[in-house]
Amino acid sequence: MRKLIAFDDDTFDKLKQLARDRMGTLQELADEAFADLLKKHGIPVDLKDALRKSAALTKTPAKNKAGSSPRRNSNS
Fold it and tell me: How far is CA 48 from CA 42, 53, 64, in A?
């Protein structure tokens, strides 16, 4: 899938230079940046991450939202 993204000239030049320095492509830089952004927000990047997250959720017991330590009103 192709999408058009606009950069200002200075940013684009810096990204091209970074790609050259790393012996990679601008696409590889974009893939890394978007994967990091998704991870930051807790969104699985691929199927492996989704399964890992799902397995972790099933291992943790669900918390009782009714409250395990009820509050007492002091009407003294």
Answer: 14, 9, 29
Q: Which residue has the tokens 């492509």?
A: 25
Q: At what angle do helices 26-40 and 9-21 cross, to 10 degrees?
A: 100
Alpha-carbon gap, residue 70 to 17, rounded angstroms: 60
pTM for the structure as a whole: 0.62
pLDDT band at 76, cuts 50/70/90? Answer: low
11-55 pLDDT per residue, tens: 999 999 999 999 999 999 999 999 999 999 989 888 888 888 888
**Alpha-helix residue ranges (DSSP H) falling in 1-76:** 9-21, 26-40, 47-59
Residues 45, 38: contact at Cβ < 8 Å?
yes
